[in-house]
Design a protein that fits this description.
Layout (H helix, E strand, L loop, with lengths): L1 H26 L13 H11 L1 H19 L5 H18 L9 H31 L3 H31 L3
Helix pairs in contact: 1-2, 1-3, 2-3, 2-4, 2-6, 3-4, 4-5, 5-6
Amino acid sequence: MQKKAAATNKMVFLALMSALYVVLNVISPEAAVIRMSFFCFLPVAVTGSLMGPVYAVIVAVLGDVLSCFVKGYAPYIPLTLTALLSGMWYGLVLEKQQLNRGCIRHWLRAAVCIVPAVVVCEIWLNSYALSVLRHQPMSVVVLQRLWGNIIEIPVKIALLMLVLPAVQKLP
């Protein structure tokens, strides 16, 4: 009976995090070229911290696919794969790590979590996928997205260090 309750709790948590991902993705500001998704990574990072990379991947992929359906377009598999990779990275770096806002090492851990995810997944892989989708040179897409992604890095680090220590204190 205990195992069924634990499995149910995990499923409910994953469903809540996926729904939160969808809501944050739908309300994030969107311009013609740049999509500012400052908050969408939070449910994935929280799941990765509390449950590990496998569950973070589930939330990232489910959230990405469901967000596409809610917004009225079909999922684009290369972008979903970058969501999968970033979810795996958040889970690998943050799993079982207690973060404290007062410790500089924990801020560095947050930076190690965010910077590679933004550089590899958002600047490089997402730009490549969008260049293929739009039939544009990758350099054009990277230049269109670069400043928005650079601005995202300190914002995401601050958000991660604001939210994650508070969530980790919950029972």
